[in-house]
């Protein structure tokens, strides 16, 4: 089990996360595993220039390895090691257009709760959507 630290800065999501109502987040990289622990925190002021604010801990109970692109997301098999030493396209299980991702947007507390708004939030946080590896993380609040 590894431990990860993540800040939460998307305003509509902060309160639901801190109250334990939102336990899903999409983050860059394919390096987390089920059973890992995440410490999620807010900032007291300007991000990265102030002290941490509220905190909550999750245990990861589910993961989806994805790549994001302008058209949507590609969901990858859980049965592969996420390395750059293979042809990732061979391992795509399913592809979804942004318009098909409203349910994930609702679970992520995106406003408005649409796949297109979800795309826009990811783009504002991570830049152009050009095949970045990310994980959709499902957690369970732990004490």
Structure overview:
The protein has one domain (3-142): Roll (Archaeosine Trna-guanine Transglycosylase, Chain: A, domain 4), CATH 2.30.130.30. Helix content is 18%, strand content 41%. The chain has three helices and seven strands; from the N terminus they run βαβββββααβ. Strands 1, 2, 3, 4, 5, 6 and 7 form a seven-stranded mixed β-sheet that branches.
User: And the CATH topology?
Assistant: Archaeosine Trna-guanine Transglycosylase, Chain: A, domain 4
Q: What's the level 1 CATH class?
A: Mainly Beta
Radius of gyration, CA atoms, in whole angstroms: 15 Å
Q: Give me the CATH architecture, please.
A: Roll
Distance between the termini: 16 Å
Q: Which structural class best describes the helix and strand composition?
A: alpha+beta
Q: Strand portion, in percent?
A: 35-45%
According to DSSP, the number of beta strands is 7
Helix content: 10-25%
**pLDDT averaged residue by residue:** 92
Main beta sheet, described? 7 strands, mixed
Low-confidence stretches: none
Tell me, what's the shape?
Answer: globular
At the fourth CATH level, what is the homologous superfamily? Answer: Hypothetical protein
Query: How are helices and strands ordered from N to C?
Result: EHEEEEEHHE
- Count, helices: 3
Overall tally of domains: 1
